[in-house]
Amino acid sequence: MRLEQLRYLVEISHTRSITIAADNLFMSQPSLSIAMSSLEKELGVKLFIRSKTGVTPTAVGAEILELSQDALMKIEKIYVVASKEQKTEQLNIRALPAINCGIMPKALSKFQNSHPSIRTYVREDKTQTILSTLFQQGKDKTRNFGIVSISDAVNALFEDRFAESGVAKEYLCSDEQVCFVGAAHPLAEKKQITQSEIHKLPKIRYQYYENEPNDYYASLIRSTNDKSFQSMYTTEPVLTVGTVDSLKKLVAENLGVAIMPSILAYGDNYFQSGQLKILKFSDITIPMHYYIVYKAKYPLNPIEKAFIHYVKEVFQEFNDMRAQFEI
C-alpha cells in the first residue's frame, strides 16, 4: 500500500467521480482506475460502488476511507512540525525569460516589500529544463519554484508524471503567441495578421543559449513544444538573438518581426511608449498556459505561500490587461 493510493481514495470519495478526481490529481482516468484496482486487490475488498449518480464507498470502503483520512492528517502534522525547523531564508526561482521581463520584477517587488529579509535567487530557464529538473529531483529539502508555460500537448503527455514525481502545479493564466512589429512597420496599424502574411516577413527569433539537459523528459517536452511553431517558420529567421532585450530593440528598429507570447508586453517600456505593436493571428491560435510548479514533498510554509500569492496577483493583473486590450 502506498501513501498516494490513500490520497487517491480520499479524492475519489470527495468528488464522487473518477474523472474529476483524476483531473484534480493531474493524472489520467485509466491510471487512477488502475491504482484503485490495485489497492482493492491488495486489500481483498471492494472500496467503491459505481453507478449513474456517481461513485460511493462500500460499507468497508467507508471505514477504510475514515482511517485513510486520519492517517493523512497525522502525516500532514508530521510535515508541519518538521517544516517549523526549515528556515526559509532564500527563495530559489526559475522562470521563462518572457516572465522575467515584466511579471517577475513586479511580483518580487511586492514580495520583498512584505519580506525584506528574504533573499531571492532568480534564474532564467526553459520550460523543459525546469520540469525535467523537478521530475528527477530527489528528496532535497531545498524547494525550487518554477514558472513555466505548459501547452495542452505537454499537459496531456505528462499528467501522470506530475503525480508520480510529487510535482504540484498551480494554474496562473493563459496566453497565446502573437506577432510583434515596430511602430514604423507597414502592418503596425493593423490588429491582426495571417499565417501567409507572416511567412513573407523577415523574422527575428529568440534563442536561449544556456546549456540545457538533453535527457528524455527535456527532449520530449522540447520536441512537443516545437511542433506548435513549425508552421510559423517555413523560412529561416533573418536574425537569431540570445536576449529578449535585443529582440525587442531589433523589432523596434524595424529589422524584422517576432513571434512571442503576449506576456512580453506586460509593463514593458517598448510597448508603453508605442515603439512596439501587437498583432494577433486571425487564422491560427497557439495557446499556452502558465503554471507555478514545485515539489510538494513538504507543506508550503507562510513565506512560500506569500510568494505564490504575489505571483498569482500579478498574473491576474496581466490577465486583466489582456482582456482590456483584447489580446
Automatic annotation (TrEMBL):
InterPro entries: LysR_HTH_N, LysR_subst-bd, WH-like_DNA-bd_sf, WH_DNA-bd_sf. Gene3D superfamilies: 3.40.190.290, Winged helix-like DNA-binding domain superfamily/Winged helix DNA-binding domain. Signal peptide: none annotated. One of its GO terms (molecular function) is DNA-binding transcription factor activity. The keyword Transcription applies. Keywords: DNA-binding, Transcription, Transcription regulation. Residues 1-58 form the HTH lysR-type domain. PANTHER family: HTH-TYPE TRANSCRIPTIONAL REGULATOR, HTH-TYPE TRANSCRIPTIONAL REGULATOR GLTR. Belongs to the LysR transcriptional regulatory family. This is Transcriptional regulator, LysR family.
